[in-house]
Amino acid sequence: MFDGMSLFIGALLDALIGPNLFVPGEPFLLAAGYQLHQGIWIGVIAVLFGGFIGDHVSYWIGRYVGLPAQKKLVKWQPKTRRPIARCRHLMGKKGNYVLAFARLLGPVAWVVPFIAGTNKISWSRFTLFSTIGLILGVGQFVMWGYLLAYGIDQFPLLNQVKLVLVEHQYTLLAITVSAIFLYLGHKLRWRLLFTKFSGVFFALMLWANYSHFFLFADDFAKKAPESDNATVVELTDLAYKVYPGISNIYDAQAMNVMFIGENPRDLMLQLGWIENQTFSRNEIELKDYIRLLQDKTPPVSDLFWNNQPQEMAFQLPGDLMRRSHIRWWQAGLDSSSQQTVWLGALSYDDGLQLTPYSGIVTVLHSVDPNVDQERDNLAQQVSEQFVNHQIEFAALSEPVALDDDHEYYTDGRILVIRDSLAL
Question: H or E segment at 330?
Answer without folding.
Answer: strand 322-334
